[in-house]
Structure formats: C-alpha cells, structure tokens
Design a protein that fits this description.
Number of domains: 1
Structural class: alpha+beta
Radius of gyration: 17 Å
Strand content: 35-45%
Number of strands: 4
CATH architecture: 2-Layer Sandwich
Number of helices: 2
CATH class: Alpha Beta
Strand order of the largest sheet: 1-2-4-3
Length: 135
C-alpha cells in the first residue's frame, strides 16, 4: 500500500467507514443485499457485493447470472453516488473524487445455501467483487 495523498486517503476512509446495506439505491432497506468497501490506498478501493438469491434449477441460475450481475453493478453505482455525495458534504473545501470500475478485476460466484431435491426452490449467495480506481 503506497499512499501518495494522505489527506485524501484519510477523507476517503472517513466516508467509507460505514457499510452500504441499509440504504439502497432508492433509500429503502435491503435485507438480502450489501455492498462493502475496503480502501486499499488513496487510488484504489476493493468492493464486495453480496446478495441472497432464489432459483428453481441450476439452468435457471445460470440464466439469471446476467440479471444478478446487472443488479450488482447498479447497486454499486448507487453506493458510489452516495459516497460521492457524503464526501462533498463532509469535505466541501476539497474536490470530490471520481470512481472508475476496473473491468478486468470483476469476479462473481454463487455459493449454495440450501439444496433439497424434493423442494422446488434453492437458495444461494451471489458474490460480486471488483476494484475501483479513485482519481
């Protein structure tokens, strides 16, 4: 970890000190989704998104992965917008950072929670992660 602008690093760490799981994009509570940020240095943020999903079969789950990914990206964009607004209100004297998703770092996976061959629905964790450049 190499910090070039220590004041920006401190400001970002103060804004990112809370989790984004109770606000949501439309300011309503989401109990099955959360977005968490880890500040690596003053120019890089690690993002972890978690959502509980339900589906009927493995085929349906593979088809729904695109929808899950789109939803994760939209939640991430909403969280970044909220972070930028918080940064501007808490530190009006400094310029607000811009955030860019590094496409090559995007990763996603599904972990099964419940599986019963006699029951029609299955439950799983959908995880999405990426890195964000801060400039």
């Amino acid at each position: 970890m190499l910090v070039k602008d220590y004041q920006r690093f401190l400001n970002l760490s103060r804004v990112l000190n809370s989790s984004f799981g109770t606000e949501g994009v439309e300011n309503r509570p989401f109990n099955t989704q959360s977005v968490k940020f880890d500040l690596m240095d003053d120019g890089l943020i690690k993002v972890r998104y978690l959502m509980i999903v339900n589906f009927g079969s493995d085929t349906m789950m593979r088809e729904m992965m695109r929808r899950y990914r789109d939803e994760a990206v939209e939640m991430l964009k909403g969280a970044l917008k909220t972070i930028k607004e918080k940064y501007e209100t808490e530190f009006p004297q400094s310029t607000a950072p811009t955030f860019d998703i590094v496409e090559s770092t995007i990763g996603e996976e599904v972990e099964f929670l419940t599986f019963n061959m006699y029951k029609g629905s299955r439950k799983a964790y959908y995880r999405f992660g990426c890195m964000i450049e801060v400039s």
